[in-house]
Protein backbone atom coordinates (compact mmCIF):
# COMPACT_ATOMS: atom_id res chain seq x y z
CA UNK A 1 0.00 0.00 0.00
CA UNK A 2 1.28 3.40 -0.95
CA UNK A 3 1.09 5.47 2.23
CA UNK A 4 1.46 8.74 0.37
CA UNK A 5 -1.71 8.16 -1.67
CA UNK A 6 -4.27 10.78 -0.71
CA UNK A 7 -7.75 9.32 -0.66
CA UNK A 8 -9.80 12.26 0.54
CA UNK A 9 -8.75 15.85 0.26
CA UNK A 10 -10.73 18.89 1.43
CA UNK A 11 -9.71 22.45 0.73
CA UNK A 12 -11.41 25.56 2.11
CA UNK A 13 -14.78 23.89 2.62
CA UNK A 14 -17.41 26.34 3.84
CA UNK A 15 -21.03 25.73 4.71
CA UNK A 16 -23.53 28.08 6.35
CA UNK A 17 -27.11 27.70 7.42
CA UNK A 18 -28.61 31.17 7.25
CA UNK A 19 -26.30 33.58 9.09
CA UNK A 20 -24.57 30.77 11.02
CA UNK A 21 -21.24 29.62 9.62
CA UNK A 22 -21.04 25.94 10.46
CA UNK A 23 -17.90 25.11 8.47
CA UNK A 24 -15.51 27.99 8.07
CA UNK A 25 -12.77 26.85 5.74
CA UNK A 26 -11.89 23.22 6.47
CA UNK A 27 -8.65 21.78 5.05
CA UNK A 28 -7.94 18.14 5.70
CA UNK A 29 -6.37 15.22 3.91
CA UNK A 30 -6.78 11.53 4.61
CA UNK A 31 -4.38 9.00 3.13
CA UNK A 32 -5.59 5.68 1.77
CA UNK A 33 -6.03 3.11 4.50
CA UNK A 34 -5.83 5.69 7.25
CA UNK A 35 -8.41 6.15 9.98
CA UNK A 36 -9.12 9.74 10.95
CA UNK A 37 -11.29 10.63 13.91
CA UNK A 38 -12.79 14.09 14.12
CA UNK A 39 -13.56 15.14 17.64
CA UNK A 40 -15.51 18.17 18.78
CA UNK A 41 -18.43 19.20 20.93
CA UNK A 42 -22.07 18.89 20.01
CA UNK A 43 -23.02 21.37 17.32
CA UNK A 44 -19.43 22.03 16.25
CA UNK A 45 -20.14 20.99 12.65
CA UNK A 46 -18.83 17.41 12.68
CA UNK A 47 -21.93 15.86 11.11
CA UNK A 48 -22.20 18.64 8.55
CA UNK A 49 -18.58 18.01 7.54
CA UNK A 50 -19.29 14.31 6.94
CA UNK A 51 -22.42 15.15 4.94
CA UNK A 52 -20.43 17.58 2.79
CA UNK A 53 -17.88 14.88 1.98
CA UNK A 54 -20.67 12.40 1.24
CA UNK A 55 -22.43 14.89 -1.03
CA UNK A 56 -25.61 14.93 1.08
CA UNK A 57 -24.98 18.62 1.63
CA UNK A 58 -23.38 20.94 -0.87
CA UNK A 59 -20.71 23.27 0.49
CA UNK A 60 -20.86 26.91 -0.62
CA UNK A 61 -17.17 27.07 -1.26
CA UNK A 62 -14.15 24.83 -1.34
CA UNK A 63 -13.29 21.54 -2.91
CA UNK A 64 -13.85 17.93 -1.92
CA UNK A 65 -11.68 15.50 -3.83
CA UNK A 66 -12.07 11.74 -3.66
CA UNK A 67 -9.16 9.89 -5.30
CA UNK A 68 -8.22 13.22 -6.83
CA UNK A 69 -11.66 13.71 -8.43
CA UNK A 70 -13.59 16.86 -7.60
CA UNK A 71 -17.00 15.82 -6.22
CA UNK A 72 -18.60 19.14 -5.30
CA UNK A 73 -21.47 19.70 -7.71
CA UNK A 74 -21.46 16.34 -9.49
CA UNK A 75 -24.82 14.66 -9.99
CA UNK A 76 -26.56 11.68 -11.50
CA UNK A 77 -24.43 8.77 -12.62
CA UNK A 78 -21.16 10.43 -11.54
CA UNK A 79 -22.54 10.90 -8.05
CA UNK A 80 -23.79 7.32 -7.96
CA UNK A 81 -20.37 6.05 -9.04
CA UNK A 82 -18.58 8.03 -6.32
CA UNK A 83 -21.24 7.02 -3.79
CA UNK A 84 -20.40 3.37 -4.43
CA UNK A 85 -17.02 4.02 -2.81
CA UNK A 86 -18.71 5.10 0.41
CA UNK A 87 -20.27 3.26 3.29
CA UNK A 88 -21.85 5.13 6.14
CA UNK A 89 -22.83 4.15 9.65
CA UNK A 90 -25.43 6.64 10.78
CA UNK A 91 -25.71 7.83 14.35
CA UNK A 92 -29.20 6.45 14.93
CA UNK A 93 -28.55 3.43 12.70
CA UNK A 94 -31.02 4.75 10.09
CA UNK A 95 -32.14 1.20 9.32
CA UNK A 96 -35.17 0.94 7.03
CA UNK A 97 -37.82 -0.17 9.47
CA UNK A 98 -40.18 -1.54 6.83
CA UNK A 99 -37.56 -4.09 5.74
CA UNK A 100 -36.15 -7.14 7.48
CA UNK A 101 -32.60 -7.03 8.81
CA UNK A 102 -31.13 -9.04 5.92
CA UNK A 103 -33.00 -6.87 3.39
CA UNK A 104 -31.45 -3.83 5.05
CA UNK A 105 -27.96 -5.25 4.71
CA UNK A 106 -28.65 -6.47 1.17
CA UNK A 107 -30.24 -3.16 0.13
CA UNK A 108 -27.16 -1.70 -1.54
CA UNK A 109 -26.20 -4.87 -3.43
CA UNK A 110 -29.80 -5.47 -4.62
CA UNK A 111 -31.05 -1.96 -5.41
CA UNK A 112 -27.88 -0.25 -6.53
CA UNK A 113 -25.69 -3.04 -7.90
CA UNK A 114 -28.41 -5.36 -9.25
CA UNK A 115 -27.24 -8.45 -7.38
CA UNK A 116 -30.01 -11.12 -7.49
CA UNK A 117 -31.84 -11.48 -4.18
CA UNK A 118 -30.67 -15.02 -3.22
CA UNK A 119 -27.02 -14.08 -3.81
CA UNK A 120 -27.51 -10.78 -1.97
CA UNK A 121 -29.00 -12.64 0.98
CA UNK A 122 -25.86 -14.79 1.15
CA UNK A 123 -23.73 -11.63 1.19
CA UNK A 124 -25.99 -10.13 3.86
CA UNK A 125 -25.76 -13.17 6.13
CA UNK A 126 -21.99 -13.26 5.69
CA UNK A 127 -21.74 -9.59 6.66
CA UNK A 128 -24.03 -10.15 9.64
CA UNK A 129 -21.70 -12.97 10.65
CA UNK A 130 -18.74 -10.60 10.34
CA UNK A 131 -20.31 -8.30 12.94
CA UNK A 132 -21.13 -11.24 15.20
CA UNK A 133 -24.82 -11.71 14.46
CA UNK A 134 -26.30 -15.17 13.79
CA UNK A 135 -28.37 -15.76 10.61
CA UNK A 136 -31.67 -15.87 12.60
CA UNK A 137 -31.32 -12.16 13.24
CA UNK A 138 -31.63 -11.61 9.50
CA UNK A 139 -35.33 -12.48 9.59
CA UNK A 140 -36.17 -9.93 12.30
CA UNK A 141 -37.23 -6.33 11.82
CA UNK A 142 -34.98 -3.51 13.07
CA UNK A 143 -37.53 -2.48 15.73
CA UNK A 144 -37.14 -5.91 17.36
CA UNK A 145 -33.42 -5.34 18.01
CA UNK A 146 -31.60 -3.65 20.89
CA UNK A 147 -29.58 -0.49 20.30
CA UNK A 148 -26.27 -2.33 20.15
CA UNK A 149 -27.65 -4.90 17.70
CA UNK A 150 -29.04 -2.13 15.50
CA UNK A 151 -25.57 -0.52 15.41
CA UNK A 152 -24.08 -3.84 14.34
CA UNK A 153 -26.67 -4.30 11.60
CA UNK A 154 -26.01 -0.77 10.46
CA UNK A 155 -22.30 -1.54 10.37
CA UNK A 156 -23.01 -4.69 8.34
CA UNK A 157 -25.06 -2.59 5.90
CA UNK A 158 -22.26 -0.02 5.65
CA UNK A 159 -19.70 -2.68 4.67
CA UNK A 160 -22.04 -4.77 2.47
CA UNK A 161 -20.82 -3.18 -0.77
CA UNK A 162 -17.19 -3.42 0.36
CA UNK A 163 -16.64 0.33 0.23
CA UNK A 164 -13.24 1.97 -0.07
CA UNK A 165 -14.20 4.69 2.38
CA UNK A 166 -16.32 4.27 5.50
CA UNK A 167 -17.82 7.02 7.63
CA UNK A 168 -18.87 6.49 11.21
CA UNK A 169 -21.16 9.07 12.78
CA UNK A 170 -20.88 8.74 16.56
CA UNK A 171 -20.73 4.93 16.45
CA UNK A 172 -20.72 4.44 20.23
CA UNK A 173 -23.20 7.11 21.32
CA UNK A 174 -26.01 5.66 23.43
CA UNK A 175 -24.32 2.33 24.08
CA UNK A 176 -23.06 0.90 27.36
CA UNK A 177 -19.24 0.86 27.73
CA UNK A 178 -18.94 -2.85 26.99
CA UNK A 179 -21.10 -2.72 23.86
CA UNK A 180 -19.25 0.45 22.85
CA UNK A 181 -15.98 -1.45 23.03
CA UNK A 182 -17.45 -4.34 21.02
CA UNK A 183 -18.44 -1.83 18.32
CA UNK A 184 -14.96 -0.25 18.44
CA UNK A 185 -13.35 -3.65 17.91
CA UNK A 186 -15.70 -4.39 15.03
CA UNK A 187 -14.93 -1.05 13.41
CA UNK A 188 -11.19 -1.66 13.64
CA UNK A 189 -11.61 -5.19 12.27
CA UNK A 190 -13.92 -4.23 9.41
CA UNK A 191 -11.79 -1.30 8.33
CA UNK A 192 -8.67 -3.44 8.41
CA UNK A 193 -10.28 -6.37 6.59
CA UNK A 194 -11.53 -4.12 3.81
CA UNK A 195 -8.35 -2.06 3.75
CA UNK A 196 -10.68 0.94 3.80
CA UNK A 197 -10.09 4.56 4.59
CA UNK A 198 -12.20 5.72 7.51
CA UNK A 199 -13.46 8.98 8.89
CA UNK A 200 -15.30 8.88 12.18
CA UNK A 201 -16.82 11.60 14.27
CA UNK A 202 -17.24 11.12 17.96
CA UNK A 203 -16.99 12.80 21.30
CA UNK A 204 -16.17 9.50 23.01
CA UNK A 205 -12.42 9.74 23.66
CA UNK A 206 -12.03 6.05 24.50
CA UNK A 207 -13.52 5.21 21.12
CA UNK A 208 -11.44 7.86 19.36
CA UNK A 209 -8.16 6.52 20.78
CA UNK A 210 -9.05 2.98 19.84
CA UNK A 211 -10.20 3.39 16.23
CA UNK A 212 -8.00 6.21 14.95
CA UNK A 213 -4.54 6.66 13.45
CA UNK A 214 -4.99 10.39 13.39
CA UNK A 215 -7.20 12.83 15.27
CA UNK A 216 -8.47 16.22 14.22
CA UNK A 217 -10.40 18.57 16.45
CA UNK A 218 -13.09 20.85 15.09
CA UNK A 219 -14.15 23.95 16.97
CA UNK A 220 -16.42 26.73 15.71
CA UNK A 221 -16.24 25.51 12.13
CA UNK A 222 -12.44 25.27 11.96
CA UNK A 223 -10.00 22.43 12.44
CA UNK A 224 -7.93 23.77 15.33
CA UNK A 225 -5.60 20.81 15.75
CA UNK A 226 -4.68 17.63 13.98
CA UNK A 227 -2.04 15.02 14.60
CA UNK A 228 -1.28 11.39 15.26
CA UNK A 229 -3.41 9.74 17.92
CA UNK A 230 -0.36 9.05 20.07
CA UNK A 231 0.44 12.77 20.21
CA UNK A 232 -2.93 13.89 21.42
CA UNK A 233 -1.90 14.01 25.08
CA UNK A 234 1.05 16.26 24.21
CA UNK A 235 -0.83 18.64 21.95
CA UNK A 236 -0.22 21.66 24.24
CA UNK A 237 -3.45 23.02 22.87
CA UNK A 238 -5.76 24.25 25.65
CA UNK A 239 -8.88 23.43 23.56
CA UNK A 240 -7.78 19.87 22.88
CA UNK A 241 -6.72 19.37 26.49
CA UNK A 242 -10.05 20.59 27.78
CA UNK A 243 -11.91 18.31 25.41
CA UNK A 244 -9.96 15.10 25.93
CA UNK A 245 -10.10 15.49 29.68
CA UNK A 246 -13.75 16.52 29.62
CA UNK A 247 -13.36 19.61 31.79
CA UNK A 248 -16.18 22.11 32.15
CA UNK A 249 -13.67 24.93 32.72
CA UNK A 250 -11.47 26.11 29.88
CA UNK A 251 -11.42 28.08 26.66
CA UNK A 252 -14.42 26.19 25.20
CA UNK A 253 -17.68 27.62 26.46
CA UNK A 254 -20.88 25.63 26.40
CA UNK A 255 -22.97 26.41 23.38
CA UNK A 256 -26.48 27.01 24.63
CA UNK A 257 -28.31 27.35 21.35
CA UNK A 258 -28.47 24.75 18.65
CA UNK A 259 -27.12 25.68 15.24
CA UNK B 1 -47.40 51.56 11.07
CA UNK B 2 -49.87 52.34 8.32
CA UNK B 3 -47.85 50.09 6.04
CA UNK B 4 -48.04 47.09 8.35
CA UNK B 5 -50.93 45.37 6.53
CA UNK B 6 -49.13 45.83 3.23
CA UNK B 7 -45.90 44.44 4.67
CA UNK B 8 -47.84 41.47 5.91
CA UNK B 9 -49.53 41.02 2.55
CA UNK B 10 -46.17 41.17 0.80
CA UNK B 11 -44.61 38.71 3.17
CA UNK B 12 -47.51 36.28 2.76
CA UNK B 13 -47.41 36.61 -1.03
CA UNK B 14 -43.68 35.90 -1.06
CA UNK B 15 -44.07 32.92 1.26
CA UNK B 16 -46.86 31.57 -0.92
CA UNK B 17 -44.85 32.00 -4.11
CA UNK B 18 -41.85 30.30 -2.52
CA UNK B 19 -44.07 27.37 -1.59
CA UNK B 20 -45.56 27.12 -5.08
CA UNK B 21 -42.07 27.24 -6.56
CA UNK B 22 -40.60 24.58 -4.33
CA UNK B 23 -43.62 22.26 -4.75
CA UNK B 24 -43.35 22.67 -8.53
CA UNK B 25 -39.64 21.90 -8.49
CA UNK B 26 -40.28 18.88 -6.28
CA UNK B 27 -43.02 17.66 -8.64
CA UNK B 28 -40.81 18.15 -11.70
CA UNK B 29 -37.93 16.25 -10.16
CA UNK B 30 -40.28 13.45 -9.07
CA UNK B 31 -41.82 13.10 -12.54
CA UNK B 32 -38.46 13.28 -14.34
CA UNK B 33 -36.89 10.71 -12.00
CA UNK B 34 -40.03 8.58 -12.12
CA UNK B 35 -39.67 8.03 -15.87
CA UNK B 36 -36.08 6.86 -15.56
CA UNK B 37 -35.07 3.33 -14.71
CA UNK B 38 -34.68 1.54 -12.36
CA UNK B 39 -38.40 1.18 -11.71
CA UNK B 40 -39.20 -0.13 -8.28
CA UNK B 41 -42.13 -2.35 -9.25
CA UNK B 42 -42.47 -3.88 -5.80
CA UNK B 43 -42.82 -0.42 -4.30
CA UNK B 44 -45.48 0.55 -6.84
CA UNK B 45 -47.51 -2.61 -6.15
CA UNK B 46 -47.23 -2.10 -2.40
CA UNK B 47 -48.43 1.48 -2.72
CA UNK B 48 -51.29 0.51 -5.03
CA UNK B 49 -52.51 -1.96 -2.42
CA UNK B 50 -52.18 0.65 0.29
CA UNK B 51 -53.92 3.40 -1.68
CA UNK B 52 -56.53 1.33 -3.48
CA UNK B 53 -57.38 -1.90 -1.74
CA UNK B 54 -57.07 -0.74 1.85
CA UNK B 55 -59.03 2.44 1.11
CA UNK B 56 -62.01 0.48 -0.22
CA UNK B 57 -63.93 0.24 3.10
CA UNK B 58 -63.59 3.96 3.85
CA UNK B 59 -64.42 5.07 0.33
CA UNK B 60 -67.20 2.48 0.00
CA UNK B 61 -68.93 3.66 3.17
CA UNK B 62 -68.60 7.28 2.12
CA UNK B 63 -70.03 6.49 -1.30
CA UNK B 64 -73.01 4.42 -0.17
CA UNK B 65 -74.21 7.00 2.35
CA UNK B 66 -73.65 9.81 -0.13
CA UNK B 67 -75.74 7.97 -2.73
CA UNK B 68 -78.44 7.34 -0.17
CA UNK B 69 -78.66 10.91 1.09
CA UNK B 70 -78.53 12.20 -2.47
CA UNK B 71 -81.65 10.21 -3.38
CA UNK B 72 -83.43 11.32 -0.24
CA UNK B 73 -82.55 15.00 -0.53
CA UNK B 74 -83.33 15.18 -4.25
CA UNK B 75 -86.69 13.57 -3.58
CA UNK B 76 -87.62 16.15 -0.93
CA UNK B 77 -86.58 18.98 -3.21
CA UNK B 78 -87.88 17.66 -6.50
CA UNK B 79 -91.26 16.62 -5.09
CA UNK B 80 -92.08 20.32 -4.72
CA UNK B 81 -92.31 20.66 -8.50
CA UNK B 82 -93.23 17.08 -9.30
CA UNK B 83 -89.85 16.16 -10.76
CA UNK B 84 -89.24 13.02 -8.70
CA UNK B 85 -88.68 11.01 -11.88
CA UNK B 86 -85.34 12.77 -12.38
CA UNK B 87 -83.82 11.29 -9.24
CA UNK B 88 -81.93 8.39 -10.88
CA UNK B 89 -80.24 10.76 -13.32
CA UNK B 90 -79.45 13.33 -10.62
CA UNK B 91 -77.90 10.69 -8.40
CA UNK B 92 -75.73 9.11 -11.07
CA UNK B 93 -74.59 12.37 -12.67
CA UNK B 94 -73.77 14.01 -9.32
CA UNK B 95 -71.81 10.98 -8.25
CA UNK B 96 -69.80 10.32 -11.39
CA UNK B 97 -69.00 13.93 -12.24
CA UNK B 98 -68.55 15.42 -8.83
CA UNK B 99 -69.08 13.61 -5.56
CA UNK B 100 -67.35 10.35 -6.38
CA UNK B 101 -63.96 11.87 -7.23
CA UNK B 102 -64.11 14.69 -4.67
CA UNK B 103 -65.21 12.60 -1.71
CA UNK B 104 -62.94 9.68 -2.57
CA UNK B 105 -60.11 12.19 -3.04
CA UNK B 106 -60.71 13.82 0.33
CA UNK B 107 -61.00 10.48 2.13
CA UNK B 108 -57.81 9.18 0.51
CA UNK B 109 -56.03 12.45 1.29
CA UNK B 110 -56.89 11.93 4.95
CA UNK B 111 -55.95 8.28 4.95
CA UNK B 112 -53.09 7.87 2.53
CA UNK B 113 -51.69 11.40 2.22
CA UNK B 114 -51.25 11.53 5.99
CA UNK B 115 -49.60 8.12 6.08
CA UNK B 116 -47.17 9.08 3.29
CA UNK B 117 -46.17 12.29 5.04
CA UNK B 118 -45.70 10.50 8.36
CA UNK B 119 -43.68 7.64 6.87
CA UNK B 120 -41.42 9.76 4.68
CA UNK B 121 -41.16 12.40 7.43
CA UNK B 122 -39.99 9.81 9.94
CA UNK B 123 -37.52 8.49 7.39
CA UNK B 124 -36.22 12.03 6.98
CA UNK B 125 -35.73 12.76 10.68
CA UNK B 126 -34.15 9.35 11.38
CA UNK B 127 -31.70 9.84 8.46
CA UNK B 128 -33.15 6.92 6.51
CA UNK B 129 -33.43 9.16 3.43
CA UNK B 130 -29.73 10.05 3.74
CA UNK B 131 -29.03 6.34 4.15
CA UNK B 132 -30.85 5.65 0.86
CA UNK B 133 -28.62 8.16 -0.88
CA UNK B 134 -25.45 6.62 0.54
CA UNK B 135 -26.66 3.26 -0.80
CA UNK B 136 -26.72 4.84 -4.29
CA UNK B 137 -30.52 4.86 -4.35
CA UNK B 138 -32.26 8.06 -5.40
CA UNK B 139 -35.01 8.80 -2.83
CA UNK B 140 -37.12 10.41 -5.57
CA UNK B 141 -37.04 7.23 -7.59
CA UNK B 142 -37.41 4.86 -4.67
CA UNK B 143 -39.86 6.74 -2.42
CA UNK B 144 -41.62 9.50 -4.31
CA UNK B 145 -42.12 8.21 -7.86
CA UNK B 146 -43.73 4.87 -6.87
CA UNK B 147 -46.23 6.71 -4.67
CA UNK B 148 -47.11 9.18 -7.43
CA UNK B 149 -47.47 6.45 -10.04
CA UNK B 150 -49.55 4.24 -7.73
CA UNK B 151 -51.86 7.09 -6.74
CA UNK B 152 -52.45 8.24 -10.33
CA UNK B 153 -53.26 4.68 -11.42
CA UNK B 154 -55.31 3.66 -8.41
CA UNK B 155 -57.56 6.61 -7.64
CA UNK B 156 -59.53 6.32 -10.93
CA UNK B 157 -60.26 2.66 -10.17
CA UNK B 158 -61.27 3.58 -6.65
CA UNK B 159 -63.60 6.27 -7.99
CA UNK B 160 -65.24 3.83 -10.41
CA UNK B 161 -65.97 1.54 -7.49
CA UNK B 162 -67.25 4.50 -5.47
CA UNK B 163 -69.54 5.47 -8.36
CA UNK B 164 -71.04 1.98 -8.45
CA UNK B 165 -71.52 1.78 -4.70
CA UNK B 166 -72.97 5.31 -4.61
CA UNK B 167 -75.51 4.46 -7.31
CA UNK B 168 -76.38 1.33 -5.34
CA UNK B 169 -77.00 3.50 -2.26
CA UNK B 170 -79.33 5.77 -4.22
CA UNK B 171 -81.07 2.75 -5.70
CA UNK B 172 -81.68 1.18 -2.28
CA UNK B 173 -83.24 4.33 -0.86
CA UNK B 174 -85.29 5.02 -3.99
CA UNK B 175 -86.63 1.48 -4.30
CA UNK B 176 -87.13 0.47 -0.66
CA UNK B 177 -88.03 3.81 0.89
CA UNK B 178 -89.44 5.99 -1.87
CA UNK B 179 -91.29 3.20 -3.72
CA UNK B 180 -89.59 3.56 -7.11
CA UNK B 181 -89.86 0.67 -9.55
CA UNK B 182 -86.48 -1.06 -9.44
CA UNK B 183 -86.12 -1.78 -13.17
CA UNK B 184 -87.23 1.70 -14.19
CA UNK B 185 -84.74 3.21 -11.77
CA UNK B 186 -81.86 1.22 -13.22
CA UNK B 187 -82.98 1.89 -16.79
CA UNK B 188 -83.17 5.64 -16.15
CA UNK B 189 -79.79 5.59 -14.46
CA UNK B 190 -78.13 3.96 -17.44
CA UNK B 191 -80.04 5.65 -20.26
CA UNK B 192 -79.21 9.20 -19.27
CA UNK B 193 -75.63 8.57 -18.32
CA UNK B 194 -73.08 9.84 -20.84
CA UNK B 195 -69.54 8.66 -21.37
CA UNK B 196 -68.24 12.12 -20.52
CA UNK B 197 -69.84 12.02 -17.07
CA UNK B 198 -67.80 9.03 -16.04
CA UNK B 199 -64.73 10.06 -18.02
CA UNK B 200 -64.49 13.52 -16.46
CA UNK B 201 -64.75 11.94 -13.01
CA UNK B 202 -61.98 9.48 -13.80
CA UNK B 203 -59.68 12.23 -15.09
CA UNK B 204 -60.36 14.22 -11.95
CA UNK B 205 -59.53 11.18 -9.86
CA UNK B 206 -56.15 10.75 -11.58
CA UNK B 207 -55.31 14.42 -10.97
CA UNK B 208 -56.42 14.20 -7.34
CA UNK B 209 -54.32 11.08 -6.87
CA UNK B 210 -51.28 12.97 -8.14
CA UNK B 211 -51.99 15.89 -5.80
CA UNK B 212 -52.47 13.66 -2.74
CA UNK B 213 -49.25 11.73 -3.29
CA UNK B 214 -47.35 14.90 -4.21
CA UNK B 215 -48.35 16.74 -1.04
CA UNK B 216 -47.81 13.68 1.15
CA UNK B 217 -44.32 13.16 -0.23
CA UNK B 218 -43.40 16.85 -0.38
CA UNK B 219 -44.39 17.57 3.20
CA UNK B 220 -42.77 14.40 4.50
CA UNK B 221 -39.58 14.90 2.51
CA UNK B 222 -39.16 18.43 3.83
CA UNK B 223 -40.11 17.77 7.44
CA UNK B 224 -37.59 18.54 10.13
CA UNK B 225 -37.21 18.61 13.86
CA UNK B 226 -38.29 15.24 15.17
CA UNK B 227 -41.74 14.05 16.22
CA UNK B 228 -43.27 17.52 16.20
CA UNK B 229 -42.01 18.20 12.69
CA UNK B 230 -43.47 14.93 11.43
CA UNK B 231 -46.81 15.81 13.05
CA UNK B 232 -46.81 19.21 11.39
CA UNK B 233 -45.91 17.64 8.04
CA UNK B 234 -48.80 15.19 8.34
CA UNK B 235 -51.30 17.94 9.04
CA UNK B 236 -49.91 20.10 6.26
CA UNK B 237 -50.11 17.20 3.80
CA UNK B 238 -53.80 16.58 4.47
CA UNK B 239 -54.80 20.24 4.55
CA UNK B 240 -52.87 21.23 1.44
CA UNK B 241 -54.02 18.18 -0.53
CA UNK B 242 -57.66 18.83 0.43
CA UNK B 243 -57.49 22.49 -0.59
CA UNK B 244 -55.75 21.61 -3.86
CA UNK B 245 -58.37 18.95 -4.61
CA UNK B 246 -61.24 21.41 -4.17
CA UNK B 247 -59.45 24.10 -6.18
CA UNK B 248 -58.47 21.82 -9.05
CA UNK B 249 -61.96 20.33 -8.98
CA UNK B 250 -63.43 23.67 -9.99
CA UNK B 251 -60.95 24.31 -12.78
CA UNK B 252 -61.20 20.78 -14.13
CA UNK B 253 -64.99 21.04 -14.12
CA UNK B 254 -64.72 24.33 -15.99
CA UNK B 255 -62.39 22.79 -18.53
CA UNK B 256 -64.79 19.90 -19.16
CA UNK B 257 -67.78 22.25 -19.15
CA UNK B 258 -66.21 24.39 -21.86
CA UNK B 259 -65.85 21.44 -24.24
UniProtKB/TrEMBL annotation, chain A:
SMART domains, per database record: AAA
Keyword Disulfide bond: no
Protein name listed in UniProt: ATP-binding cassette domain-containing protein
Keywords (A to Z) from UniProt: ATP-binding, Nucleotide-binding, Transport
GO MF, any single term: ATP binding
InterPro entries membership: AAA+_ATPase (IPR003593), ABC_transporter-like_ATP-bd (IPR003439), ABC_transporter-like_CS (IPR017871), P-loop_NTPase (IPR027417)
TM annotation in the entry: none
Family assignment from sequence similarity: Belongs to the ABC transporter superfamily.
Pfam families: ABC_tran
ABC transporter domain mapped to chain residues: 8-245
Taxonomy, superkingdom: Bacteria
